[in-house]
Design brief:
Shape: globular
CATH topology of the largest domain: Rossmann fold
Number of helices: 14
Radius of gyration: 22 Å
Distance between the termini: 31 Å
Strand order of the largest sheet: 2-1-4-5-6-7
Oligomer: single chain
CATH class of the largest domain: Alpha Beta
Number of domains: 2
Helix content: 40-55%
CATH superfamily of the largest domain: Glycogen Phosphorylase B
CATH architecture of the largest domain: 3-Layer(aba) Sandwich
Length: about 400
């Protein structure tokens, strides 16, 4: 289709690779490269008085109820963010608004433009799924978050989720017509993709090396990954575990476990180290307890590294059994992970086929060029044919 002019709505910095684990950045770059001209409107910072009010709300809630007030889901901040973003758009021509994981900024955003809302979950799902985070949040804060989600979904012209799991929640929990919801896996959040010839570079590493790549130890199943290392070693398998992104509790210590607390992919040296990890490790092991979309599997698959993970949330939409890894049952322990990994790795033909098919899965579905192609097709089908968007709309005022 012809290139379009996109208003890209975010309250965080859309050029920061740490926003939404880099997804906000890479969606914007994919749209810019393959779909149209993107006007990056974020970030939005609350003014001093609003910031003081939000902090006061959080303190009062904590004092009176022992719960937390999550300022991210504040109706007042949502109203302010919508006006601030609308002001940035004034006098400019656009074809559409794209709002990635943007219920806060989009909920009170008033526009005649068609809009595309992108996410990997719904508030209803995540508030009952990420227990550690949401069990601490006050009932009022949850009510605000759910209201913001409802308003955003109902006003969007097109909604794109990364999994059927999230799509079904939008339909069931928010009454969104199925024909307004598309499903596409997100891409690998990386700037450099290796040539296909290099996916067997890991064969130069003679020690079975597992990569645990996550910023949370417990929620991503760190103890199970550690148990898998112990199980492999007890079987006489020369195995190592590299933990990258977090620091395990002191009781999780092993001579064959290496810990890399944090890598900032905005820094060249950290990005290069990240690439070396993906090149030399044999399996991504992530026995996650809760995940909306296993983005790191997209990245590992680019390097022909299969993902061994859990059948939960939106993960099975990313990792297909026998294609780019395996999703084990939620109740599987470290012994089960170790047994599967050892079976695959001991059968070189099977492992090599899995390397090739993991890379193929990345090439066919789990990259941003394919995501942008899918976006264009959905846009043409659901948005561009609407008579009201046959010409650009000039944003004239803040309402």
């Amino acid at each position: 289709m012809d290139r379009i002019k996109i208003a890209y709505l975010t309250v965080n910095d859309p050029l920061d690779k740490r926003s939404w684990s880099g997804t906000t950045y890479y969606i914007g770059q994919a749209l810019q490269k393959h779909v149209g001209d993107v006007d990056f409107l974020g970030p939005v910072q609350p003014p001093w008085l609003l910031d003081k009010w939000l902090r006061a709300m959080a303190k009062i809630t904590r004092t009176l109820t022992g719960k937390e007030y999550n300022t991210k889901y504040s109706l007042v901040f949502s109203w302010y963010a919508a006006r601030a973003l609308k002001k940035k758009m004034r006098g400019r021509k656009y074809d559409c608004v794209v709002a990635p994981a943007a219920s806060t900024e989009f909920s009170f955003f008033s526009t005649r433009l068609p809009s595309v809302y992108i996410s990997d979950t719904t508030f209803e799902l995540i508030s009952h799924y990420y227990h550690k985070e949401f069990d601490k949040i006050s009932a009022f804060s949850k009510w605000e978050g759910n209201l913001l989600e409802k308003r955003s979904l109902r006003k969007a012209s097109l909604i794109i989720y990364s999994s059927q799991w999230a799509k079904q929640s939008a339909i069931k929990d928010y009454g969104i017509p199925a024909q307004r919801v598309g499903v596409m896996p997100l891409g690998a959040n990386m700037d450099t993709v290796p040539d296909r010839r290099h996916i067997f570079e890991k064969e130069k590493n003679g020690v079975l090396t597992l990569l645990y790549l996550a910023v949370e130890w417990d929620r991503k199943g760190g103890p199970i990954a550690f148990e898998a290392l112990q199980s492999l070693r007890s079987k006489g398998v020369q195995a190592r575990l590299i933990v990258c992104g977090c620091v395990p509790p002191p009781e999780f210590s092993h001579p064959e476990m290496e810990v890399i607390p944090f890598l900032n992919k905005n820094k060249q040296e950290d990005h290069e180290r990240f690439i070396r990890l993906l090149s030399r490790c044999h399996f991504l092991i992530l026995p996650t307890r809760a995940d909306c979309s296993l983005l790191v599997a997209c990245e590992s698959n680019a390097y022909g590294m299969p993902a061994i993970t859990t059948a939960t949330g939106g993960v099975p939409d990313i990792v297909k059994d026998g294609v780019n890894g395996y999703c084990l049952p939620y109740e599987a322990n470290g012994e089960a992970y170790a047994q599967l990994i050892n079976e695959i790795f001991s059968d070189r033909d099977r492992y090599h086929r899995l390397i090739r098919s993991s890379r193929q899965r990345y090439e066919q579905s789990l990259n941003w060029e394919q995501w942008a192609k899918g976006f264009s097709e959905l846009y043409e089908q659901h948005v561009a044919k609407t008579p009201s968007v046959r010409k650009k709309i000039v944003v004239e005022r803040v309402s």
